[in-house]
Design brief:
The complex is a heterodimer of chains A (350) and B (335).
Chain A lengths: L3 E4 L2 E4 L7 H8 L3 H8 L9 H14 L5 H7 L5 E6 L10 H12 L3 E6 L4 H13 L4 E11 L10 E7 L6 E4 L1 H14 L5 E6 L1 H5 L7 H14 L5 E4 L5 H14 L5 E4 L2 H13 L9 E6 L2 H5 L5 E4 L2 H12 L7 E4 L3 E2 L9
Parallel strand pairs in A: 3-4, 3-5, 5-6, 6-7, 7-13, 8-9, 8-10, 10-11, 11-12
Antiparallel strand pairs in A: 1-2, 12-14
Helix pairs in contact in A: 1-2, 1-3, 5-13, 7-9, 10-11
Chain B lengths: L5 H8 L3 H8 L9 H13 L6 H5 L7 E6 L10 H11 L4 E6 L8 H9 L4 E12 L10 E8 L6 E5 L1 H14 L5 E5 L5 H16 L8 E4 L4 H15 L3 E4 L2 H13 L9 E3 L17 E3 L2 H13 L6 E5 L2 E3 L10
Helix pairs in contact in B: 1-2, 1-3, 2-3, 5-11, 7-8, 9-10
Classes of the chains: A alpha/beta (350), B alpha/beta (335).
């Protein structure tokens, strides 16, 4: 993409960095959200006249324009963030991202325009170009399963990848899978478990970043924590993370290793199958066997007893990606903690 | 006065709206007969057609946009396939879809809709995760609109695409009765809402077909959440010992399945369970896999996209059939 484009008969340099709210906030020495409130004329902000004056002076000096119409005319902006996704809106897993992006944009009185690209690189390129034509102020590229993708970067426009990485290391936000892996293992270790089964490893995904840039660290975190405690888990290798595969693996594992007191499942889908297997074996969760998992997806809520799991924080990741785009956070790679959602599936063993 | 749109030019010239777009945007990569081209240009001149701001940028062949106004469709995990369907329908004509999600914003998406419309769209599609009224954008005067899984809240005339909820439930309930079940309980969704009413109507007609008095079927109503399926199933299993549960959706069916298991019963040996929705990656992965009715979200999106780009307006209700999906959770009742 070129650095110039025409607008209203004039050439506009798209490489020139536009002053952001963060610049105004920095120059006037207030928080970005305070600056935003003042420049957007939000009522009842409880900010002093002095602060208001300082922020306006800084905005003037930098040529920052908060009024959408004025911005649209002078700086060719529309107060719109583009959210371009592979399958975030069409699949169920990561739809929380849309909520996070909307909320973060809404806080700054920005609107969000969403484009789906069905996982096709060509459509991704076209969607981003079309967003540029519609003069969005920044772009978040949202990816359903954290993987390596190629995304064109229009010059002069902030672009952040949410739940993915690019070969040219564009700013991105990823879940902190390593720490989550450790936390899951430590949840069991703290409860006194030493005989632990792990369902299941998926070696092709570990090796290929086009499948996942994060999953291998999920397992590394888990293994590091277990090794540090001198525990070697019983492991299985699986072809896919599905409920029926979780069911078969849990059944076999408990037959072969009846001394196992806890299962770690790679995803909630797998846990769903493991629950069924344990109930068929008359093993009560968590009194006979504890189960802990990853994702906190829809299925986790349904299970009885409730499943303790490390949550993929889609909403928070998108919130942070959007805040990077809006200039509230420094550009770069950011890891978002995966909170442990403690429910009823883990018990202590003596 | 209303702005003259490409739709008006299309009508005047007797061609489709995409054809008008191709001609007026001088897209030489799309073949349009010279006589048609001349007719379109003449009609545009006669009507004093003024391309809007976005139309001007169409010269780049890029801003060819269909807007989707989504109320929880993008931000919730249930009906995203509608968006995919719309996209598939319109992309062949060179359109890009832009989605505005109206939930999670302080103004119900009003500013976002205005932004979208200010730059011009070829048409608008309103979408919801479950059939309900949709509030039209204030500024969409003169833009062709199609409603999918929703209808205009102001009661105005429009093309409305809905799933045939009645037929879906009638098919599922018939399968339950055909399998020999007589002690059947209906664990429905929100009572009085369109989807639930239509499905109960389907249940009633299936019962009549099977020679069963519909009034003899116990009905309980939940809120489409798994927990309500769980609670209601625990209650009716203890009271009535039904052999089959017909559930308001897959989530309630999952709740019912967990209730069956927690009472030490088996599905389908002791109790059969039927859902509604066919939620991808869930219904087919349960143990046992869930017999259900597929909501045709993808097809509904396709239909809406086609209606939007059709040569003429086709107001009224367009019903898309649901598909009964037999899996393992429905079997014959215990002897």
């Amino acid at each position: 993409m070129m650095g110039w484009r025409t607008q209203g008969g004039h050439l506009v340099d798209t490489n020139r960095r536009r002053p952001t709210l963060a610049d105004v906030a920095k120059l006037s020495g207030v928080s970005p959200s305070a600056a935003s409130k003042i420049l957007n004329n939000r009522p009842n902000t409880r900010l002093s006249a002095d602060t208001t004056q300082k922020v306006r002076a800084a905005a003037e000096e930098l040529g920052y324009r908060a009024n959408p119409v004025a911005r649209g005319l002078r700086l060719s902006t529309t107060r719109t963030i583009g959210f371009v996704s592979d399958r975030v809106t069409t699949m169920r897993y990561a739809s929380g991202m849309i909520r996070g992006a909307l909320e973060a944009a809404d806080d700054d009185d920005y609107t969000v325009l969403i484009a789906e690209t069905d996982g096709q690189p060509q459509k991704l390129r076209r969607a981003i170009e079309t967003m540029v034509d519609r003069r969005v102020d920044g772009i978040v590229v949202g990816i359903t399963f954290a993987r390596l993708i190629e995304a064109p970067h229009p010059p002069g426009l902030p672009l952040v990848v949410c739940n993915g990485r690019t070969p040219d290391a564009l700013p991105c936000v990823l879940p902190d899978e390593y720490e989550a892996g450790k936390a899951v293992a430590e949840t069991l270790l703290r409860a006194g478990h030493r005989h632990i089964g792990l369902i299941g490893e998926l070696p092709p995904v570990f090796k290929d970043p086009r499948w996942s840039v994060t999953i291998s660290t999920r397992f590394k975190g888990m293994n590091d924590a277990l090794n540090a405690a001198g525990v070697s888990p019983v492991k299985t290798v699986v072809p896919e993370w599905r409920a029926d595969i979780g069911y078969e693996n849990a059944l076999n594992m408990m037959h072969q290793h009846p001394d196992i007191t806890a299962l770690i499942t790679a995803t909630d889908n797998v846990a769903f199958g493991a629950y069924r297997a344990l109930s068929e074996l008359n093993l009560k969760i968590p009194y006979n066997v504890s189960v802990v998992s990853f994702d906190d997806e829809e299925l986790a809520e349904y299970l009885r007893p409730g499943l303790t799991t490390a949550r993929l924080p889609y909403d928070e990741m998108a919130r942070r990606a959007t805040r990077q785009v809006l200039g509230h956070r420094p550009f770069g790679e950011e890891l978002v903690p995966m909170p442990m959602i403690i429910r009823e599936s883990v018990a202590r063993v003596e | 006065m209303r702005r003259v749109t490409m739709k008006d030019v299309a009508r005047r010239a007797g061609v489709s709206q995409p054809t008008v777009s191709f001609v007026l945007n001088d897209r030489r990569d799309v073949s349009v007969a010279e006589s048609t081209r001349a007719r379109v240009l003449k009609a545009a001149e006669e009507l004093h057609f003024q391309p809007n701001r976005a139309a001007q940028s169409l010269r780049s062949n890029r801003s060819f946009t269909v807007g989707i106004i989504a109320d929880r469709v993008a931000a919730e995990p249930y009906a995203g396939q509608i968006i995919l369907g719309v996209q598939h329908a319109v992309q062949a004509s060179g359109y890009v879809c832009f989605v505005v999600e109206t939930s999670a914003t302080h103004d119900s998406g009003e500013a976002a809709m205005e932004n979208l419309l200010r730059q011009g769209v070829a048409g608008l599609i309103y979408a919801a995760p479950g059939p309900r009224p949709a509030v039209k954008a204030k500024t969409d005067e003169g833009t062709r609109s199609v409603f999918v899984n929703c209808w205009p809240s102001d009661g105005s005339d429009a093309a409305v695409v809905l799933a045939d909820e009645y037929q879906g439930e009638r098919d599922a309930a018939s399968a339950v009765f055909d399998a020999g079940h007589r002690r059947v309980v209906f664990l429905g969704g929100v009572e009085g809402e369109f989807a639930c009413q239509e499905r109960e109507r389907g249940l009633d007609d299936a019962a009549v077909d099977a020679g069963i008095d519909p009034r003899s079927i116990r009905r309980e109503h939940g809120d489409y959440q798994a927990s309500s399926g769980y609670e209601l199933a625990l209650q009716v299993l203890a009271d009535d010992h039904p052999t089959a549960l017909i559930c308001g959706n897959d989530r309630m069916a999952i709740g019912a399945l967990i209730a069956v298991h927690s009472m030490g019963l088996s599905c389908p040996q002791d109790v059969s369970i039927v859902g509604f929705d066919d939620q991808p990656d869930i219904a087919d992965q349960l143990h046992p896999s869930l017999t259900t009715v597929a909501l045709p979200h993808l097809q509904m999106g396709l239909e809406a996209g086609e209606l939007l780009l059709a040569d003429d307006d086709r107001p009224g209700r367009h019903l898309v059939p649901c598909t009964y999906i037999p899996r393992a959770s429905l079997a014959t009742p215990p002897a």
